[in-house]
């Protein structure tokens, strides 16, 4: 197989990928219209479709409650600065043994 054959095959693959995308997009739109039609016909709800939790909330994951401040776990003996261990490590502890800075 030479490079001309490879180039032709790659071009054909690109054309096929584009054709597949067009067909998939059209099929998706048709499916969405059919589903909407059936939902309206039978007055289906999210719960009927199994798209809610048992307590009636939507199945999408919501944000949790904000977390409060955390007690510091590390202290710089020279400056007295503290760090909770969350987020980026401060310069005074970066790359060092953290056990030496435990409070």
UniProtKB/TrEMBL annotation:
GO terms for cellular component: nucleoid. Residues 64-103 form the DNA-binding protein H-NS-like C-terminal domain. The keyword DNA-binding applies. It is found in: Cytoplasm, Nucleoid. It comes from the Bacteria. Residues 55-89 are annotated as: Disordered. SUPFAM superfamilies: H-NS histone-like proteins. GO terms for molecular function: DNA binding. The keyword Ion transport does not apply. Keywords: Cytoplasm, DNA-binding. InterPro entries: H-NS_C_dom. Belongs to the histone-like protein H-NS family. This is DNA-binding protein H-NS-like C-terminal domain-containing protein. It comes from Robbsia andropogonis.
């Amino acid at each position: 197989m030479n490079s001309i054959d490879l180039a032709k095959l790659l071009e054909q693959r690109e054309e096929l990928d584009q054709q597949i995308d067009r067909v998939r997009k059209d099929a998706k739109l048709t499916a969405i219209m059919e589903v909407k039609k059936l939902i309206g016909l039978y007055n289906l709800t999210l719960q009927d479709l199994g798209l809610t939790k048992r307590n009636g909330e939507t199945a999408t994951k919501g944000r949790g409650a904000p977390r409060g401040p955390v007690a510091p776990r590390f202290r710089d003996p020279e400056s007295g600065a503290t760090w909770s261990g969350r987020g980026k490590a401060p310069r005074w502890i970066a790359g060092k043994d953290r056990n030496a800075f435990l409070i």
